[in-house]
Every structure is written in structure tokens, then in C-alpha cells.
Design a protein that fits this description.
Layout lengths: L12 E3 L4 H11 L3 E4 L5 H6 L7 E4 L9 E4 L3 E5 L4 H6 L1 H6 L1 H8 L4 H6 L2 H7 L5 H8 L3 E6 L2 E6 L4 E3 L2 E2 L6 E7 L6 E8 L9 E9 L6 E9 L6 E2 L1 H5 L8 H14 L10 H21 L4
Parallel strand pairs: 1-3, 2-3
Antiparallel strand pairs: 4-5, 5-10, 6-7, 6-10, 8-9, 11-12, 12-13, 13-14
The structure holds flavin-adenine dinucleotide.
Flavin-adenine dinucleotide binds next to strand 2, helix 2, helix 6, helix 7 and helix 8.
Length: 297
């Protein structure tokens, strides 16, 4: 399908493929001249500001397979890339199994943006202050990427290569996100710190942890940070401060200090680098305690 004057933007062809295969063929044909259109919440802003000028848009709106949540016993959960933040925030399985993700999706902007904005679009926009990436890092998620050449999977933290830049090449489509099945005695949480109700995060912290059978020793932990650098970040030093230790307020405090030291927050009109580091320290402690409180749920 080709249309002109899309949303008042002339000279842009809009394609609405019915399945992933046709979308991939269109991406291969148009290469860097094409842009994938998911919810349009960021893309249309960039278009209207004249910051990008694609020759065509490839809409994901008519590909039903990209809007499914599929859980299989023992194999985790697959999220289609075009699932909206609203769906994730309200899905009962996501809320009970992966609370960090439901909380991150619910923390995005406003109801209007959450109804349209998709999880794949959020990841591919690669805003370092975005909420879902930090939660997905904490949950050990992987992204599946496809082109006409085949498919590959990446841990979500490896998707982000620089400021608002991903590891995707122009002919690739992010098709799904894979969440591993939750381990026994595990819990997760995402906390966002912002000044006003619909703001993006000054900082955001996702924590996913599991305990040994003794119920006190940290078996595994993953910590994702938003607003802590030029990309969403996995806080590996903070994780090392917890693994194999008894999980207490004191060890979460050590993790908070480690996270604040290892990240490189940007400074802007909303907050200084110093303030963001202080808040990362505090919110790692807080999110860690919330995740811990869920390990017996
Ligand atoms: C006012 C406002 C406030 C916001 N506040 C927040 C916030 O607080 N927290 C937060 O996390 N986010 C926030 N966002 C971002 C929002 O959450 C959306 O997720 C984000 O705008 C992109 O999602 P989308 O589906 O609309 O993608 P689009 O805008 O359609 O696309 C974004 C980019 O990703 C590419 N893309 C999209 N899908 C794919 C795919 N499957 N494969 C390959 N490339 C793809 C597009 O080509 C484009 O480059 C805000 C947005 C707005 C407009």
C-alpha cells in the first residue's frame, strides 16, 4: 500500500505489510531510505521536527503476530515487538511474573502515549532515560532481530550501542522480546524517579534477583539503570556486590554505592550528574528491597 500526505507529511510512501516476511522484504528493498513505524510516538515527532527524512514508512500495525504475548511452561515468555506499554502494564501474567516490566510500562508518560507506544519502538528509539529497557535488563531479557538473511538474538543490554543508537542495521526488524522463566524464590521491581507526573526518568532502576534455598543468600541478580549514561546500563559492579552475599539493607547499600560509582549520568537542565548519582544509589537500595519483598510471593 502506498499513500502520500501521511499525517500531513508529503512525499512519504506508507506500507502496511500483513506479515513479518513482507515487512522484511520491504526493509531489504528500501534499506536506509525506510523507517519502521510502530506506535509513532517518537518517530512522528522526529519527522515533524525534520530530524529524519525517510522515503517510506513500514507500519507494523497490520501484523497480528507482533502483538501477541506467548508464555510456554519452562521456556519463558515471548513478547511481540508491537505490544503496547498499556498492554504490558495491564496484563495479569506480566504483572504477576514480571512485575518490574509491568511497573516500567506503567511509568511511561501518559495513558495516551502508553496506548500507542510499543515495547519494540521504545527499545529501538534507545532513549537512555526510557523505563522498559532497565526493567528488561533486570529480567535477563533477549531481543530477537530478523532480516531477509535470517535471525539473531541479543541480550537486551547489547542492543544499545551509543546515544539513541542500536545494534540494528537498516534492513533489520526487532520482532520479539524473550523473558526467561522466573527462577524459584525470585522477585523483581522497577522504580522511577521524576519531578512531574508525566516526565521521563531522572533515573530509573530495575532489579531482578533470586535467592538460594536458605532464603537469604543472593543466588543471582541483575540491575538495569535508566538515566545513568548515554545508553540504558547494566550495573555489573552493583550485581557483584550482592551475588553470594546475604541480602540485607547493608548489602543493598553496598550495591547502591557501586552502581552510583560505575555509571556515567548526563547533566542537563533537569538534574546535575551529582544528583543523578545520588538518586541511583538511593533507588538501587529501594528497588532492591522491593524485589526482595517479592521473592516469597
Ligand atoms: C510525550 C512523550 C513522553 C514519553 N515519555 C516516556 C517515558 O516517560 N518513558 C519511556 O520509556 N518512554 C517515553 N516515551 C516514549 C514512548 O514510550 C514510546 O515507546 C516511544 O515513543 C517509541 O515507541 P513507538 O512504538 O511509538 O515507536 P515509533 O515512534 O513508531 O518508533 C521509534 C523508533 O523505533 C523504530 N522502530 C519501532 N519499532 C521497531 C521495530 N520493531 N524494529 C525496528 N525498529 C523499530 C522506528 O523506526 C523509530 O526509529 C514518551 C513519548 C512521548 C511522545
Amino acid at each position: 500500500m502506498g499513500e502520500s500526505a501521511f499525517f500531513g507529511l508529503r512525499d512519504i510512501d506508507v506500507h502496511a505489510p500483513p506479515n513479518v516476511e513482507v515487512a522484511l522484504a520491504l526493509l531489504a528493498e528500501h534499506g536506509a531510505g525506510a523507517k519502521v513505524l510502530a506506535g509513532g510516538q517518537s518517530l512522528l515527532v522526529l519527522l515533524r521536527m525534520g530530524l529524519i527524512s525517510p522515503k517510506c514508512l513500514i507500519s507494523l500495525q497490520h501484523i497480528p503476530g507482533l502483538k501477541l504475548i506467548a508464555a510456554s511452561a519452562g521456556e519463558g515468555t515471548r513478547l511481540g515487538a508491537a505490544i503496547t506499554q498499556h498492554q504490558l502494564a495491564n496484563d495479569l501474567q506480566i504483572r504477576s511474573r514480571f512485575p518490574a516490566l509491568a511497573e516500567a510500562a506503567a511509568a511511561v508518560a501518559s495513558p495516551q502515549v502508553r496506548r500507542l507506544g510499543t515495547i519494540g519502538g521504545n527499545l529501538c528509539h534507545a532513549d537512555p532515560t526510557a523505563d522498559p529497557p532497565a526493567a528488561l535488563i533486570a529480567l535477563g531479557a533477549e531481543v530477537e532481530i530478523q532480516s531477509v538473511e535470517g535471525r539473531r538474538r541479543l541480550p537486551v543490554e547489547e542492543l544499545f550501542v551509543d546515544y539513541m543508537e542500536t545494534a540494528l542495521s537498516p534492513d533489520e526488524l526487532l520482532t520479539s522480546i524473550h523473558l526467561p522463566a522466573a527462577a524459584p524464590r525470585s522477585g523483581s521491581a522497577y522504580l522511577k524517579h521524576r519531578l512531574r507526573g508525566v516526565d521521563t526518568a531522572l533515573v530509573g532502576v530495575g532489579v531482578g534477583l533470586s535467592l538460594e534455598e536458605d532464603g537469604v543468600t543472593c543466588r543471582s541478580v541483575r540491575i538495569g539503570l535508566a538515566g545513568a549514561g548515554v545508553t540504558p546500563i547494566r550495573a555489573r559492579e552493583a550485581e557483584s556486590a550482592l551475588i553470594g552475599k546475604s541480602v540485607t539493607e547493608a548489602t543493598f547499600a553496598d550495591a547502591g554505592v557501586a552502581a552510583a560509582a560505575e555509571c556515567s549520568p548526563l547533566e542537563d537542565t533537569e538534574a546535575s550528574e551529582w544528583y543523578r548519582r545520588e538518586m541511583i544509589d538511593l533507588f538501587v537500595r529501594r528497588a532492591g528491597l522491593v524485589a526482595l519483598s517479592r521473592t516469597n510471593a
